[in-house]
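Q: Convert this sequence to structure tokens.
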Amino acid sequence: MKFKVGDKVIVTSGKYKGQKSEIVTVYPQDNKVLVKGVNLYTKHVKAMPAFNRPGEKIVRERPMNVAKIAILNDKGEADRIGYQINKDGSKVRVFKKSGAVIKATAPKEAEKEEK
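A:
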């Protein structure tokens, strides 16, 4: 899968078309990603008096197919992802329109563990 956690993306179809956000989780086996604040649904939880728990509505994000999103390049435009092999043999992701290398963004959990 070409998308990584932390990539800035734009939704290209559906109810949330045009909304810009970032990827929170990637599900490569299902070809889906979880985008922050997009593809929301409401789960109604029944009250449980025995456990002294009231009923509530929980708003969550659902994973969406990668075909419905596009990565945002440095100019803030929708772009596609390609790969390029460097002279030292390392493989990097690049934007198809500009050919610029996509900066690797570390997940926030990894940053917290380093501190």
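Helices lie at 108-114.
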